[in-house]
Write a structure and sequence with these properties.
Elements lengths: L1 E2 L9 E5 L6 H10 L6 E5 L7 E4 L1 H5 L17 E4 L4 E4 L4 E7 L3 E7 L4 E7 L1 H6 L1 H13 L7 E4 L9 E2 L1 H10 L7 E3 L5 E3 L1 H11 L4 E4 L14 H4 L5 E7 L1
Parallel strand pairs: 3-5, 3-7, 4-6, 10-14
Antiparallel strand pairs: 1-2, 2-15, 6-9, 7-15, 8-9, 8-10, 11-13, 12-13
Helix pairs in contact: 4-6
This protein binds zinc ion.
């Protein structure tokens, strides 16, 4: 487990990004089976979009989709899957929010004043769509969080050393968000390198967030520490986890 140091100062926040050899495939069932009465683990079906789901009492007590990601957990009342969502926010203690990552950037956010936490999954599509900003906006609009009270952590993910794309992806960034040009460098005649962590940071800053810590680790470079889809097609994933206790 890789505890996110930035949140350690907040006694009531538990957050980590898992490391090899742990796999989300094992962690999600074991965490779910250890839930106590009234505790939850929320697992979205991620679609590289920008929807952020608010996990409030109405959501917890409402109807839920069938657990197709982990059908063996269907009988655990606290285990809930959420359709078509890449970000989660809650202010309820005991509700663990998780996303899984095989190079995609995890963005964590915490507001200790309002006791609100959130996490988002930002691959290149979600990064470009601004899911990091959407995460923060949801905390502001739904819970009245002030930007200055929000601490954010951009966790380990594929970095600008390894996130290589061709012209099609680069052009999409330039067309949809021309300001991202400074986060894109030319590698050779056909390839470009994109700084996804930098773009997520810029989106957080655009929402007024000043306390941002960025994990320098590249999941693609650090073979002994992280699974990586880009490096070798790993099907195993890291788990991003945040919970109010
Ligand atoms: Zn790298």
């Amino acid at each position: 487990m890789n505890r996110t140091d930035i949140f350690v100062q907040f006694d009531n926040v538990e957050a980590f990004f898992s490391l090899k050899p742990d796999r989300s495939l094992d962690l999600i069932p074991s965490l779910s089976r250890n839930l106590k009465a009234g505790e939850y683990l929320i697992k979205p079906h991620m679609v590289h979009g920008k929807h952020v789901q608010v996990i409030d009492r109405a959501f917890l007590e409402g109807e839920h989709i069938d657990a197709v990601g982990y059908p063996e957990l269907a009988d655990i009342p606290g285990y809930i899957e959420v359709p078509e969502t890449d970000g989660l926010v809650t202010d309820i203690p005991g509700v663990a929010l998780v996303t899984t990552h095989g190079d995609c950037i995890p963005v964590f956010a915490c507001n200790p004043v309002k006791n609100v936490v959130g996490v988002a999954h930002a691959g290149w599509k979600g990064t470009l769509l601004g899911i990091a900003a959407q995460l923060v906006r949801t905390m502001k609009t739904r819970y009245g969080c002030s930007a200055e009270d929000i601490s954010a952590y951009i966790g380990a993910g594929i970095d600008k050393c390894c996130f290589e794309v061709r012209e099609d992806v680069r052009n999409k960034f330039l067309a949809d968000a021309p300001w991202t040009e400074k986060y894109i460098s030319v590698k050779d005649d056909e390839h470009y390198l994109i700084d996804l962590k930098g773009i997520n940071e810029a989106y957080l800053k655009s929402e007024g967030i000043e306390i941002i810590e960025i994990d320098p680790d590249c999941t693609c470079c650090l073979e002994n520490k992280y699974w990586s889809y880009r490096r070798c097609g790993d099907k195993d994933r890291m788990l991003a986890y945040i919970k109010l206790v």
